[in-house]
Amino acid sequence: MRRIRRKREKRKKRIIIISVFLFLIIMTSGYAAFSTNITINAKGNIKCNPKIVKEKLLENLTTVGEGLYADEYEEGRYVYKGENPNNYLKFNDELWRIVSLEKDGTIKILKTTKVATVSFDEIGNRDKTSNGEGETLCQTSEHGCSVWAANQNMVGSPSEFTLNNESGTVLKDATINTYLNNNYYTSLNNNSKELIVSHNYYIGGVNWGEAKISELIKSETTNEKKYIWNGKVGLLSFTDVLKSNIDDNDCKMSSNPYDENDADILQCNLSTSYIDKNFNTVILINPRNYTVFLSQFYNDNWINDYASSTQVVVHPVVFLNSSIKLCGLGTKNNPYEIE
To answer: What does the alpha-carbon distance between residue 94 and residue 195 come to, in Å, rounded to a whole number?
Structure first.
């Protein structure tokens, strides 16, 4: 009996040892399998599981304070508002700000640092000194032309472009357009270029006036969309900047005491806009009127300037593919990153 009991005890011990051994093998294998689904960067920090850009950004949709808002003027679109929302993105190894999440799932982004200081349109490119190369609308100006693109390069190839109740044909793209979509675009790394999509930019002229920001957005969205250019690299639109502000303040007209030929200044209190807080000058894609373009955003002033001005600080805008996946928090220290 004692021998039988000892055998049973030995058998139990062997079973326990084998069970423990198998358990350890299973746990080790399970951990290894689990660990393969975690992304670890060079510093050893565990990153998030990347998510499609639309899903990732909409996690932080808000209706108060800084952040991503539903665009109340365009259904299915979302815009960032506030003095410093979490809309930082690392792209092309540089910091950008996400301006909007579009209906089609693409994102519109703005480079935080300038890429060049060039003329919007050089003298002789399209105005009366171009020997007819600029065509009828631009021929009347001696200070460059304020239209972003040639008519043949606009969506639908309209026969004329209308500015300030005057119409004409534009045969060439603006100097700044050519620079951004040739010199600048080719300077990007190949991975970045693959992520940029051709997209519609609304390039119609704007006609500012005294009104609340919300009223200007309604009227000028219509004006901007009268003409559309589809391409890779562009600039911010007038309403992009207005929509980045949280408060619906009044905009008022005033005169420029330093320039008798440039009497119009639009003053808007955009103190709750990250563009107002972080960019001294923003050149816009929309012309202001017939001979000059809406050029500078500085201390709440929108100022006219000639298209041939040499003091144009360029912050490019591009649209990124809707299929990209993001990690990160969108802060300056932990920006969204494309996986």
So the answer is: 14
